[in-house]
From TrEMBL:
It holds the Pfam family TauD. Transmembrane segments: none annotated. This is TauD/TfdA-like domain-containing protein. It comes from the Bacteria.
Length: 211
């Protein structure tokens, strides 16, 4: 299982029917860490902007499509794995985009920009500079979240425009939510998003971070 996640960048499980089972599977991949809001299991439901917590994607985008992003881009190192679990079937898929496929679609100049792009990361408690694509141990971490990151240097300003276009052009992997499905995604390799949702939809995902 671990090698599948390491090689493919995401893994799917079916028929999970208890929180105990959910936690046990997640613990196979590392240590479960709380979201900065303190929750070990965060509940995600679509919200209109007026009902959402400040600085959340729902605050910025409401029920509209979310842009592709890294989760916890505001941390010094974003979390390695993000687990999403759905107790019930819903018809709003999560979309995954392998950052290596983004790199494959860039010419050499833009590829250089990827490695040189510096963003300012802004949170209520912390402001810092970060590379968009940061070498870490034996791999790279992609960090991208337009809600808390602003392009600062020339490379970042140039590549930011290109990335937004590529995110529209590329076909993402669709995770269709069925009852009891768990998906664990490498948050250092994949960006994710969600399509626009109808306000009547019953979409509830549980999210767990793993390092
Ligand atoms: Fe997210």
């Amino acid at each position: 299982m671990k090698s599948t996640l390491q090689n493919k960048g995401w893994i799917e499980f079916q028929d999970i029917n208890s929180e105990k089972q959910l936690i046990e599977i997640c613990e196979n991949f590392g240590k479960i860490i709380p979201h900065p809001n303190g929750n070990l299991i965060d509940i995600l439901t679509p919200k209109e902007s007026k009902d959402a917590k400040s600085l959340s994607f729902s605050k910025n985008f409401g029920l509209n499509k979310f842009p592709f992003h890294t989760d916890t881009a505001f941390l010094n190192n974003p979390v390695k794995y993000m687990a999403l679990f759905s107790e019930e079937t819903n018809d709003c898929p999560t979309l995954l985009l392998n950052f290596s496929s983004v790199l494959d679609n860039l010419d050499e100049t833009y590829k250089k920009d990827i490695f040189k792009a510096i963003y300012g990361v802004q949170t209520p408690n912390n402001n810092f500079l970060s590379l968009l694509y940061k070498p870490f141990q034996s791999e790279f971490i992609i960090r991208y979240d337009e809600c808390c990151m602003k392009p600062l240097n020339k490379s970042a300003k140039r590549i930011d425009v290109v990335l937004k276009k590529i995110f529209i052009d590329l076909t993402p992997i669709e995770i269709n939510w069925t009852k009891g499905k768990l998906v664990i995604v490498d948050n250092w390799k994949f960006l994710h998003s969600r399509n626009a949702v109808n306000s009547s939809i019953n979409r509830k995902l549980k999210r767990i971070y793993i390092n």
